[in-house]
Description:
globular
Amino acid sequence: MAAEHSPLAQFEIKRLVPMDLGGLDVSFTNASLFMVVAIISVTLFLTLSMRSRSMVPGRMQSMAELSYEFVANMIKDNVGSEGRKYFPFIFTLFMFVLFCNLLGMIPYTFTVTSQIIVTFALAAVVFVGVTAIGIAKHGFKFLTFFVPSGVPFVLLIILVPIEIISYFVRPISLSVRLFANMLAGHTLLKVFGGFVIALGLYLGWLPLGFIVVLTGLEFLVAFLQAYVFAILSCLYLNDALHLHH
């Protein structure tokens, strides 16, 4: 019983449809379900909001257009005109992370982005994709990204390994940032929710007030973390395209 009331119980992966493939557990879990729900939600939101295509947009159409313009401007400001061809990927990434974060705010749902394996998989796709783009465009010249310009040769012996390590740490930092923020926020909400029950009718309103404030903050964090994930992906893409250092 104690485990069921633990603040971390909400992050437990549960098998909904057990499946085994060659000794590998490929079960359809609650995480899988809410990733599918997030994809369907994004698709419905964009499809239904743009169905009328009115000259004077309604609320839903305005939100869809703002989402499009927000990501388009993000790419333009951080990657430049060369980044336009990668808009579909960055836009999909931003909307998927955002909707996963927001769906996790609904009671009795599951926060997909609170799982390090999910956030690391997303970060790994960005890392491998960006590295492949850099190599495809620059060839062996891409290796100069790890060699700071204007630095004496003696210092390069120290700096080049540091640059290589920092480059390969990118997917870890990108994934942990999103995972840690979502995990911490939802854990805190669960803890204060327990205080409401424990303190009862007379004093329970104090932690309840904190929950209201934290919930508003969590909605802001949900958007900010999707934004940070997308903009860092843009910056990594910019490095690969232009070898900025």
